[in-house]
Amino acid sequence: MEMKNPIKAPTITDDSNANLLSILRGGDSRNDDGAFLWDTMRDRQCLTYLSEEIGDFSSLLGNMSLDAEHDLRPFYSYNKRISEGHCLPDGHVASYESLENWKNALLRVKERCHFSMHYIRALTNVHHDYLSLMDTEVKVEDELFTARVEERSPLFAIKLPEKFLRKNPDQNVAMGYNVNRLVTTRDIGMTLMDIANVSFAASPVKERDDDQRKTAEEEALAGASLLRHIHSNWRSCDDAGIPPQLCLCMDKKILQSDDYTNDTEEFEQMFEYVRSKILLNDCVEKVEQTPALRKVFVFSLNAMVQQGVRQEQDWHRARTYYRDLGMKYLEIAVRVFPFRKSTDKFQKTTADERCGVLARLRKYIIGARGSRNSFFSTTRTIVAGTQTLGFVKIGTNFPEILRQIAKSHK
Predict the structure, then answer these.
(1) How far is CA 80 from the centre of its chain?
(2) Is 195 in contact with 17 (CB distance < 8 Å)?
(3) Where are the beta strands (DSSP E) in 224-372?
(4) Is residue 1 part of a domain?
(5) Which of 139, 187, 203, 341 could form a disulfide with 147 if both were Cys (CB 3.0 to 4.6 A apart)?
(6) pTM of the entire structure?
(7) By 3-state DSSP, what share of the chain in percent is helix, strand and coil, each rounded to 5?
(8) Which pLDDT value is given to residue 381?
(9) What is the reported pLDDT for 389?
(10) What per-residue confidence (pLDDT) applies to 325?
(11) How many structural domains does the chain have?
(12) pLDDT at 340
């Protein structure tokens, strides 16, 4: 399944190697002797290919004895001994050569069942000057606020075969919902292990008693395959085992939200901006304020994330010189009315023909006094009708979302 919004998977520890090993062990980081994904794939008579760059940084797989058909670690260890900086004796870039080897291997076995992994770190670890070798800009470590957030929530994308999706509609639906839920690296590992085992059917809910259902729900909060379980909207970092310094869930600022009621200039400014963007779509007739939500809600990342704290114990020292970076997210809800299908101009729009739009905008507070400024830096919006339809950007595929809502109400 090709997802329009790839999953952001918050890490459960600050150790990148530990997070990746947890994924490769199917979400089980507690058992050092547990089976790896490639072991399961090999048992299915699939080809296995592993490679890892060897450099002046800790190794992911180390000296593990791995039962893989193609293990290129000795080759890259030899490359490190004969290379000068990032160049091989023949003048080629070492990292580029390793990527070429991986690409060629994938092209040769693309028609066969296989598992491959290539772990590359030289371009972003220790030697930042290596970044000039890449075509696109990469933000490294925690030098920028964006990087502080992104390093805690690595991107995960998956594409499942169309035949698989047609044969397994329940798994397709579960994955579609989980795109917009809190997902951890443990969930990713369990999902990949299910794919490796070709086993992902959850036991029918009707066959469980109340205690079994409660136990299953509690276990799923700690970690569950994205193909087996639709994670809760209200799953928290505590539920998922994500420590505070890695938690990217927004904190709602109740007192600050009270400063942006519908009779303030800031509320009107934000509403008019969202309204103007939505009305760019010619399928929308009008946009109104939502009676039940007549104020802007303020959200902010927790102080540990803003400050870039990696270990919880470091916060005791960091908090003495901590200052708010001014990153606020302002949320406003509006009602959207699409044009009526009927030619009868006097026919009223029913509740089922309306949809709600929840727009979230990013605001930077500038100046020592934290003076208010314009909100015009759009991030993303969520559209909700009778069902959650996912994240979209205002002014792009909004007409398609409205068509989906209209279709769901037929």
Answers:
(1) 34
(2) no
(3) 251-253, 284-289, 297-300, 327-338, 355-364
(4) no
(5) 139
(6) 0.69
(7) 35, 20, 45
(8) 36
(9) 28
(10) 63
(11) 2
(12) 67
336: tokens are: 């959207």
Q: String of b and e for 252-283 (b: at least 16 CB within 10 Å)?
A: eeeeebeebeeeeebbeebbebbbebbeebee
pLDDT at 138: 47
Q: Judge contact between 379 and 393, C-beta under 8 A.
A: no
How much is the pLDDT for 21?
A: 83
- Output the pLDDT for position 370: 34
- Whole-number Cα distances in Å, 173 to 77, 166, 177, 183: 44, 11, 6, 16
Same domain as 168, residue 24: yes
Residue 299 and residue 209 share a domain: no
Dump the DSSP string for 352-379.
GG-EEEEEEEEEE-BTTTTB------EE
Regions of the chain short of the pLDDT cut 50: 1-5, 131, 133-142, 343-346, 349, 351-352, 364-410
Residue 251 has what pLDDT?
84
Cβ neighbours of residue 145 closer than 8 Å, sequence gap 6 or more: 306, 325, 327
The one-letter amino acid code at 162 reads: E
Reading across the β-sheet that carries 114-119, which strands appear in turn?
A: 70-71, 47-52, 114-119
From the list 114, 230, 227, 116, the residue with the least C-alpha distance to 165 is 227
Determine the pLDDT at residue 331. 85
Last residue of a domain, one of 244, 263, 295: 244
